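ugh ok so i messed up the first submission bc i forgot one of the chains. this is the corrected input, ALL of the components this time, i swear. 987 residues overall. if the numbers dont match what u have on ur side tell me asap before i send this to the collaborators (the ones from the other lab, u know who)
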Amino acid sequence: MTNTLSRRDFLKLGGAFAGALAVGKFIPPAVAQAARDAGHLDANNNGYIPSMCEMCVWRCGLLAKVQDGRVVKLEGNPEHPHSKGKLCPRGQAGLMTTYDPDRVLTPLVRVGKRGEGKFRKASWDEALDIVAKNMLDIKQKYGPEAMVFSSTHNLSQPLFENLLQAFGSPNYGTQRSLCFNAMIVSNLMTYGMEEPDRDYSELKYIILTGRNLAEAISNSETGELIHAIDRGVKVVYLDPRFTKTAAKATEWLPVRPGTDLAFHLALLNVIITEGLYNQSFVDQYTIGFDEVATSVRQYTPEWAAKITEIPADTIRRIAREFAAAAPFALAHNGWRTSNFVNSFQTQRAITILNAILGNWGRTLLPAGGESGSLGAPPQPAYPRVSALRLDGVPWKYPFVPLKIGVFQQLRDSIVAEDPYTAHGWFISRQNPAMSLPDRKKTLQAFSKMDFIVTVDIIMNDTAWFSDVVLPEASYLERYDPLLVLGNRAFLRQPVIEPQGEGKSALWIYKQLGERLGLSDFFQYQDDEDYIAQQLAPIGASLDDIRKQGYIELPEGNSELYKWNTPSGKIELRSETLDKAGFDGVPKWEQPPAPKSGQFYLLTGKDARQTQFGTQNNQLLHKYDDEPGLWMNVKTVASLGLRDGDMVQVTSDVGQIFVKLQATQAIRPDCVYMTPGFGHLSKGLTTAYGLGSSSSDLHVTYTDPISGSQALSQTFVSVKKA
Amino acid sequence: MTDIKNIKHKAFLYDATRCIDCRACMMACSVENNIPMNKTRIWVAGVGLKGEYPDLDRASMVYHCMHCDDPDCLSACPVGAYSKRPDGPVLYDHDKCIGCRYCMNACPFGVPHFDYDKGLIPGAFIDKCTMCPQRIDNGLEPACVATCPTEALMFGERADLLVEAHARIQAHPDRYIDHVYGETENGGTSYLILSHVPFSELGLPELGSKPVKDVSEAVMGLTIPFAVTWGAVLTGVSVGVHAYNKKKEAATEEPAEAEESTEETK
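and heres the new structure output, hopefully the right one now
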């Protein structure tokens, strides 16, 4: 099934598209010329070019070793705060993503039935004309709202948003509601910011609620945690699985899925009833303490022990230890915690825990975020949109930010054709056929569409079901808008020429904008001009930033004790939530549990893969574990199964067949699988046929406050296939 | 920090307590050294999920060439395909190799591996970690070390790394086994290991401080005297038998002849 490259193929691939560059020493192509001018490449076109990784959303700085038009090695850039000279396995394997033999190198137009995978090559002009014509037809017949747009967190997203807003559609899906909406909305409600920065430098005690930093690697933060452990920091880690983070933790608590909220409520109970909180911080910087104190009085450790299956004295001891370590303590707000519908209130409890101990300013700092000092091309105001959003924001989900949305609801509304019918879908760098829960329903949504266009570098599963596929240049082949981190702006610049006819997102959206009559929204000549306009206000040029890969920005003035909440303080009780009819202080919400004979279906991360987009990378595949279904050894025996058996796993919405992996490292009432396997596209020759997809099993449950998909709230039965 | 080029005795320090088994080192090595897709020079084994739920522990180990101070592979190689650089790396020359696989049998760590699928193509037999001479000679750390996100792998002067390793043990005696593997094992290696679980659980052999090759060389050193002696014995026996037969014919007895000739060869 897997098409493994031989050594010769690997070398050949490296050179495959360098053929035209053989004469590069005499007439260097644009990328090499720019890199030579910036002093990165020598006369033979060898050297290192600074840029940024895109194998996940952490965006590490990299130094690409280039030899005569080929990238041959990637190194972490020591100047970049997210890499500090290191790259994770995905970052190291990045050149295999660029040199993937399955790259889509020309625009493609579907010729067979949708999903059959038959396409013909087309020129950019033809493909863009087809896309623009379909989009305009849909707009004319049904209004701009009938065109749905979705994309995943990336640096050219502002231009994608520009395209959809200029087009006039309110319908925008991102991956966030499948990820950490609960964290973001909770932080917004408490601190008035999406995600405060975490500081490990003085840390003494950390509680990780499902934040598996050793496997869901955020390069610099993973390093910081391991160094903190080295210094003797105490780590309490909650997870139903004994992950590689659990192995590094001081204390692993195999909490019952969905009950992390009870654990944190009990911590609050002990810290408040025993008077261990920071009174002066609470008085000065927070509101709503009394309401929290009253609310958590009932949540004793004994109460929580029954729910969480963590002993009461363990909870009491951790509460006391944690309070004693404050303010050098951190309840990590994780990304997804337990992934149940009560995850929003879990997140709230975590933020409150940090606040009442006065950890703010020590282990939690205001988010660095966007700098206002960069420029942007001029553009007119967007057209007014009157149509409702299909994803229910804000009319059904009032607290979900517009630029984040509720993706699974968007999909459901497309299928239900309610409140109106969508006819077209524009997808960029995203793979909803894999990422959304209940895959059958997602494919149903595709079938409702008159027209689907996908922008990607490979034939991902969604592209497979598309009418037009537009080939993007890979992250090593293109520019993107700048990334601001602290007081520096970082550059992603091409280190090699785009292969085939791959083009940057900046170019694709501009070309489309022009065909859609929206050129006023794309007032830049080309990628370089866009970045030049970004740099203009600080008096710098593209050449300036190209040299180091970053440029210093004027000092921003972020105030430590300032929160963008209605009260201007940290809101322990949120009046906003109260007014909307939700709990303004966190209260226990009992999550559903599996029926007898069923198991919690857990999903998580593996250090070699990022979500649904990296499984076709042959180098990652080479060193990855075989995907399978984890089940506790005792459970396996009690079901009369054996390690390695092929089993049938069934949920309320689907079933899969997968190989069983008997392990000690999971609660007996849970099963686990790494998501991202079980691809549908035969255009992914490495990933196709490998493992099965958790998306076939996941049931759609949306948290009404944050819009988060409760990914762990799916229960399955398992039997021998 | 000393320029890597100038380090006199280059060595790795691997700290199993810091390793998260992410395998970035393996990717980095594969790319840096252009390793075929079905081969590897580094293994990271998640060797140890130990215990029963919920009392569990886990350890992982990054296996490299140990770059022994006194390499057994070099000693065993009949054609001189191996060499030991004075600053640490144990290197292998594809062009000299005849594919006899003595080095595989000699290495107590099982490091050199054989390209069985390549048959008898000259120069394609053995592969192993080289310590990335193309990098260290240009002032760069080996690819695996340079990328390690948790600094579980470090690179430097062997003596300095030993000081660092012992300092870590002293600072956290509860965390580490009180031993730096490779400090003395097999006569000392350029790959030093710290661990929180017994080294045998990481799959490392228990070795004395004398290189295995010293033992084998001591034995092998007797080969020539032994051969000569044994040859003489056989000659003596043959001569004796011949003489005996003759004597049988002549009905006389001179049995000490063979023993005498043995004495003479000593």
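quick check: The first helix of chain B runs from residue 24 to 32. that seems consistent at least. Chain B has two domains: 4-210, 222-265.
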